[in-house]
Design brief:
EC number: 1.5.1.2
InterPro entries: 6-PGluconate_DH-like_C_sf, NAD(P)-bd_dom_sf, P5C_Rdtase_cat_N, P5CR-like_CS, P5CR_dimer, Pyrroline-COOH_reductase
Strand content: 5-15%
Pfam family, one: F420_oxidored
Catalytic activity: L-proline + NAD(+) = (S)-1-pyrroline-5-carboxylate + NADH + 2 H(+); L-proline + NADP(+) = (S)-1-pyrroline-5-carboxylate + NADPH + 2 H(+)
Largest sheet: 8 strands, mixed
Order of helices and strands: EHEHEHEHEHEEHEHHHHHH
Structural class: alpha/beta
Keywords: Amino-acid biosynthesis, Cytoplasm, NADP, Oxidoreductase, Proline biosynthesis
Bound molecules: nicotinamide-adenine-dinucleotide
Low-confidence stretches: none
Length: about 270
């Protein structure tokens, strides 16, 4: 049987912060690319040493990173994306793919500032740090099937990825971008409830966190609708339906929906 050859390409990061580190580590750990294929430049000394410690290449400037990469991930803060891309414009050529993870920066602006037309925009989220990101990508008109496949392989190394039209990106930010924070609050509140009901704090927090993880895995792996799973655990006059009644009285569903809508609207205002 013929073993398919590894698709090795050079991956450069402009902006070596937290998200770049999560992606670079995930990509290297999963074997999508060898560490020698991953490079960045040394904008800040402490980030340089983090990247160096994993064996990634550290080049002298972001210009060199672009010149020496097949795929360039723009991973600086959105506020400086314009300035950085305008400076890097001379280094972009048609054979390169620009991947932007800068929140709220539109494809049209990325094209104008970088002069690059092969672009894929991706919105990951912070669980990338533990290999559980929910990412959404929007593929620019000039990006090829191969570009798309490569980007999917990169972001699958840090979690899951879906494709959506750019018009959905503000809502993606409101749901999966901000969502981890909503769930942290839910976990904290569940633990507080456990403590109020008499559990030791450590046990309450561990149970709350594992319960959220387990419930998410049930939805993900069973293929069942969450309503179906909820019905399956609510026996008549039982404990769970008593708890659910309180959630409904407190407007739990409506509050979560409003949170996603408010974050989406705020994202629209900012971009
Ligand atoms: P971060 O602050 O950790 O990283 C940004 C890095 O860019 C820093 O290391 C900084 O030293 C470097 N930098 C600053 N100016 C630079 C320049 N001129 N040239 C090169 N590098 C420069 O931020 P982060 O959380 O990693 O976010 C990076 C990007 O990812 C942002 O655009 C953000 O919107 C996007 N994003 C982040 C998340 C998230 O959950 N953290 C989710 C989706 C998208």
């Amino acid at each position: 049987m013929e073993i398919p050859s590894l698709d090795v390409f050079k991956l450069g990061f402009v902006g070596a912060g937290n998200m770049a580190e999560s992606i670079a580590r995930g990509v290297a750990k999963s074997g999508v690319l060898p560490v020698t294929a991953i490079r960045t430049s040394h904008h800040r000394a402490e980030r340089r040493s983090v990247f160096q410690s994993f064996g990634f290449q550290i080049l002298e400037s972001s210009g060199q990173v672009v010149a020496d990469s097949d795929i360039v991930i723009l991973s600086v803060k959105p506020q400086i994306a314009r300035k950085v891309l305008l400076e890097l414009k001379p280094f972009f050529t048609d054979d390169k793919l620009l991947v932007s993870i800068a929140a709220g920066i539109k494809m049209r602006d990325l094209q104008e500032w970088s002069g690059q037309h092969r672009i894929i925009r991706v919105m990951p989220n912070t669980p990338a740090a533990v290999g559980e990101a929910a990412s959404v990508m929007c593929v620019g008109e000039m990006a090829t099937e191969k570009d798309k496949e490569r980007v999917v392989s990169l972001f699958k190394a840090i979690g899951k990825i879906w494709t959506a039209d750019e018009k959905f990106f503000d809502a993606v930010t409101g749901l999966s971008g901000s969502g981890p924070a909503y769930v942290y609050i839910a976990i904290e509140a569940l633990a507080d409830g456990g403590v109020a009901a008499g559990l030791p704090r450590d046990l309450a927090l561990a149970l709350a966190s594992q319960t959220v993880l387990g419930a998410a895995s049930m939805v993900d792996m069973s293929g069942k609708h969450p309503g179906q799973l909820k019905d399956a655990v609510t026996s008549p006059a039982g404990t769970t339906i008593a708890g659910i009644h309180e959630l409904e009285k407190g407007g739990f569903r409506g509050t979560l929906m409003s949170a996603v809508i408010a974050a989406t609207n705020r994202c629209r205002e900012l971009s």
